[in-house]
Amino acid sequence: MDNGESSYRRFLAGDDNGMVEIVREFRDGLMLYLRSYTEDINAAEDCVQDTFIRLAVKKPKFSGRSTFKTWLYTIGRNIAIDNVRKSRRHRGVSLSECAVLADEADLEQSYLVSEQKINLRHAICRLREEYQQVLYLTYFESFSNEETAKIVGKSKKQIENLLYNARKALRTELEKGGFDYENI
Fold first, then answer.
1. How far apart are CA 104 and CA 36, in angstroms?
2. For domain 1-96, which architecture applies?
């Protein structure tokens, strides 16, 4: 698959199976990425649904200036940011209050295959929000620094600096827990 672009074109041409393929391909990864914005797996799931609804209903034009996956994750990020802003206004709850939910553990179990990667994911969740985002997009979703920069709205140099600092912070976090990061 060419990263979802042909499925989206088929969907726009009237083939509903194109959208089904996009949802299957990107749902879990997008949900885990958006969780770093919402700090709540249920809110992230809502944002993912809103992202796919936006694709299905508004049918935005994909220009091809980036990969389809980059474009899709950018749409999801913008929706998550809007939802976080709305929830701040209504509830006044700090984003730093992160509850680990059973749903999140189940999703991580199915998405991240080994126990080491699950421990690594939990260590990443303890980092600053922007560190979580660049690490997740770069290492779990295999986006390039340039694609990550487009998704989060920063320059490539800012992403490189964030990645450097995020890796240092992650190493410190992992060493605190006695984690063997050499074997990941």
1. 12
2. Orthogonal Bundle (1.10)
List CB contacts of 41: < 8 A, sequence separation 6 or more. 31, 35, 101, 103, 104, 107
Structure pTM? Answer: 0.66
Tokens found for residue 80: 């998550």
3-state secondary structure of 56: helix
Tokens for 75, please give them: 């749409």
Does pLDDT of 51 surpass 90? yes
Indicate whether 101 pLDDT > 60.
no
H helices of 39-155, where?
Answer: 41-58, 68-91, 102-111, 115-125, 129-135, 145-152
Residue 30 has pLDDT above 50, yes or no: yes
Confidence of residue 95 (pLDDT cuts 50, 70, 90): very low
Task: Write the Ramachandran bin of 40: left for phi over 0, alpha for psi from -120 to 50, otherwise beta.
Answer: beta
The CATH code belonging to domain 112-179 is: 1.10.10.10
Q: What ranges do the domains of the chain cover?
A: 1-96, 112-179
